[in-house]
Design brief:
The protein is of the alpha/beta class and 108 residues long. The protein has six helices and four strands.
């Protein structure tokens, strides 16, 4: 099973020292470069732990999905949604309500 993770979930799990749960629960974790760039900023909380955890899990997004009403969605959310579609992933781990609504409408 492939799960695409966005930054908020990764940071929250890292704070709880629980990043390994993603691997246990889902098997394969992938993130777009934009999410990696958001969470691995030097001196940002949890950046070192996330940099280590995300080694080998970063993917380039080669396709962009058309998202109506992308107002307010950040680069990371948009890239995560695109990677989810690109890899035909099983799950998208994202906490932004606008992103959830957009990704659900894309599935229809």
């Amino acid at each position: 099973m492939i799960v695409i993770a966005d930054s908020s979930a990764l940071v929250a799990l890292s704070i709880c020292d629980s990043l390994s749960l993603l691997d246990i629960l889902f098997g394969e974790v992938k993130v777009p470069q934009a999410v990696y760039d958001e969470v691995c900023i030097v001196n940002k909380a949890e950046s070192q732990a996330l940099q280590t955890y995300l080694a080998g899990k970063v993917c380039n997004v080669t396709t962009r999905i058309a998202i109506e009403k992308s107002n307010g969605l950040g680069k990371g959310e948009l890239a995560a949604m695109s990677l989810y579609k690109q890899l035909s992933a099983d799950l998208l781990l994202i906490d932004d309500a606008r992103a959830k609504k957009s990704s659900l409408s894309e599935q229809s």
